[in-house]
Amino acid sequence: MTQSLRNDLIAALDAEADEQVAFLSRFVAAPSPNPPGDTREATSHLIDALNAEGLEHEVFAPNEVMPNIVASFEGGAGDGPHVVLNGHIDVFPVEDPEVWSKDPWSGEVSEGRIWGRGVIDMKCGTASLLHVYRHLHRIREHLKGRVTLTCVSDEETVGPWGARWLVANVPEKVLGDVLLSAEATGKHAVYFAERGVFWATITLRTPGGHGAYGHTTPSATRIAAAMIQDFEELEKIEGALSDNVAAILERAEASIDLSHGEGTSAMLNKVTVNVAMVNAGVKANMIPSRCDIVLDIRLPISMTYADVLPHLEAIVARYPHATMKIDETIDPNWCDPDHALVPILQKNAQALSGTMPDPIVCLGMTDARLWRYAGIPAFVYGSTTEGTAGLNESVEIDDYLHVVKTHALSVFDYLSA
pTM to 2 decimals? Predict the structure, then answer.
């Protein structure tokens, strides 16, 4: 019976492939850049799909322009785990739309791809999970446990109105027993962990003065140039991984580099420093009296910002014109990479694509961290990461359909065991 149902599920997904492509195209064509963060049009697209099948859902909008959707159903085959599916609706802004080869808000379908801002991060994944939810609901009487779909509207700015709000205010609805996200990973990776974030602003202040009299005052920008070189010292800091995680990442070195670029595996357990912004100066003939340096420091899963803070403070202390402000800290997070859902994901991904994804650490951030902070195992598997938030962002149609099918079969298998 289970195999027959599984075959029927595959056939149903295949039968509506064109519909799934058209759905994602329309989803991308509903702009939801954050900032500014108004996702109402894109959210309505998802709600319309749920309503079309009579699927009950709730909308939580602590910020009226950033609504969140929560839908849930009980399986009819007895007790089992509560699986939560999570995707976000907001996307990165488009800085310069006229240089795109396609309209970034068109959702154009051409050349075997779907084009537009946010199609990778993460409208492809969110659309996939909505289709997964729809199809599993149709066969719910054969599933154990519970399935919940969460589509949130405030992820790109690490904002307070999306998953953070749901986890804090309605945890009984959204936490569950395990979370599955379809953020982009590439076919070689399943994320079980994420690096941490430490954002800080260094401000340099000097008297400033006329550009012709450089001998009379220090220049804030010249001091900044020296300080920026010193920040490279932070990248020599390495953490100490537990033996089992170190072994898992060692085995996955090839997959890590395939997913994120050659050399990624070598720096995964090191601190990295991005000098994200340097703001200074008023006009060409003035010596800058102020320079702000914004740092984006990423932390390995083996340490927190408190481990790095003394090293950064020591660098800043060398410069009497400098002060520092901590802007944001997000601790690294992880869960057990040997969780029962992981081999199911791996088996289905390999069967469908020919590639076995390895458990690895995510370089960036996803909402999965919020479930891990709450003690809930959370895993991420999705489309390619190549081109995320970049010019002419697009995803292969086959990649998108692969994500839909992998998630649908994995949840089915997990709740049918």
Answer: 0.91
